[in-house]
Fold these 4 entries.
Entry 1:
Amino acid sequence: MSVVYMRQAQDSDLAAIDPIIENARIYLKQQGINQWQLGYPNQETILNDLKQKHGYVLIVDKQVAGYVAVITGEDPVYTKIESGQWLNQSTNYVAIHRFALSHTYRGQKLAQRFVTAILTYFFDKDVVDFRIDTHPENMPMQAVIKGNGFVKRGIVYIDEGHAKHVRWAYQLSLK
């Protein structure tokens, strides 16, 4: 049985994170999804995540298998929501961004386990409100999001490659 856990990303993880992001970009393109196709996220984005202690990795048998940026507190991406509303106006939430798994581990239900690890870790830090977004055509990610109890709340816009792009916004409250 594989040992699977999440930990904070370290600078030494960058060599493993870069190909995970690039392979996710390729996978999205192969699926016909115009997400992450304009140079975002890039190494500078990930380095900034690491510097701000927002980066986390999923470890499977001592190998980096996934990456995510988790931002606590108010996230400008979620300030304005259209075609719906957040469950509350709290700014004490966790925003989940740049979620990617290595293609090596695709099909092993590790995305579900990664989200569960995020929820558990931050719930232990007294955070009960979680937000995430994805491209309207990214059905695999939508399945992961919904499979973890998130509910679609509306539309947000994200800067990706110097342009605003529509993303479906989801929220989960554990209280």
Note: The two ends are 33 Å apart (CA to CA).
Entry 2:
Amino acid sequence: MPALQPQPEIITLEQYNTLPENIRAEVFQGILYNMASPSQVHQDISRELLYALTDYIKKKNGSCKAYAAPFDVVLNHRPLTVVQPDLMVICDKNKLDGKRCNGAPDFIIEIVSPGNASDDYIKKLYYYQNHGVREYWIVDPNRLLVTVNYFEGNRIVVQYPFDAAVKVNIYDDLFIDFKVIGQILHS
């Protein structure tokens, strides 16, 4: 007869809040998962995307705010689900409490790391779609693809190569030029 496997400890938001600041972790269904530090390419892409989002919002005098990881998003309290998307845009300021976002951001971008691609393509896609995120991009520097998941109305999924200008669907006139971002990979 096989030995019983120990069950992971289910944590609460109060326990999560006691983690040291230098610990990067996410929580799915109450189970804590440690996160690895992002690579240089990951950081370069994240920076360029954050610039594009922030610049657009400022030029439009928009009320939304763009944030980069690490910044906690509590998607669910019971069981606890806390994520740290690579990038996000939050338009409802009532979701912000000075420490985190409580509820789904409007727009999330995850940049795929080689060791955890299934997290972005499967697990996070499921959680983001089912907890009210309006639009979710998966930026994959290894495959040179951007997968756009737009959840409002009928779900739309479109893939773009790294030489395309990709429309941010939550805005009428924002396109992000991935030619510029693709050049980062070759510099």
Note: The CA atoms of residues 21 and 70 lie 10 Å apart.
Entry 3:
Amino acid sequence: MRFGSPPSLDDLIELAEAALAAIPAALREPVRGAAIVVEDAADDDTLLEIGLDSPWELTGLYRGTPLPAKSVLETPMMPDTIVLYREAILLEWIETGEDLFRLVRNVLIHEIGHHFGFSDADITRLE
């Protein structure tokens, strides 16, 4: 996908959907009930909650209960959600020159890792 102007929220949603479809079914199926959304940037409350100062530092976020912590006896209060932050992703894309689809896929897979209950350190080791 080539862009003549900065990719929009819709463009990133399209890339995220294509990235999700391209990952192995073993990773994709357990995420089927999670919402995947794209926002421009993390808000101040989110940054405060996770201890970051700048929205440019956060390309994605998993919100929900990781699979190992889920119980069939509990009703979830909110659906699991994977949020991709457009502006931080685009900044990394510009700074690294990495293919945008690959970058979106990497962020998505990283957040899916959190859905499986992996920590950032676990995900880094797996990468």
Note: The chain has a mean pLDDT of 87.
Entry 4:
Amino acid sequence: DREVHRGHIWRVVVGDFESPDGERFQRDIVRSPGAVAAVPLLFDAEGVPSVVLVRQYRAVFDEMVLEIPAGMRDVADEPLETTASRELIEEVGLRAGALEPLVTYYPSPGMADSVLHVFLATDLDPTDRDTHGPEEMHSEVIHLPLADAIAMIGTEILDSKTIIGLLLVERRLRTADTR
């Protein structure tokens, strides 16, 4: 890697590679510490599932974006579950009694080495939010029935980690109901 830019969290490098057939080539790559996200899942007295999302300003798009709680792995050597727990408290004011891995995926493999770990957060207790930065300071916590959140995919919910997390939770609940 040849570093061409170092930012607050990410680095941009030019990397030299060799394809499976031996051809040499270069690519610009964003080097990232990765991120975690969590789908906070609650059930009402009748057993209807709901989720807690955060609507926060995203400068890249200059708009408010509806998302599951998430954050960068910006604390060296912090366990994934610890980062997810911290983000739940910061963004939506919930402490998870249980965090279960849902999926690990590559959000943008054509340009970044970022890996995103998505958890299911359950056994939730309210706590004071611990917001950091302008995105969280001006954010809004949204509590929705899971079915409503699923219906918002593609219109009001456009964020990939949120879409993936919601759909995996819906599938898990549907599969559990059919057993």
Note: The first strand starts at residue 2 and ends at 6.
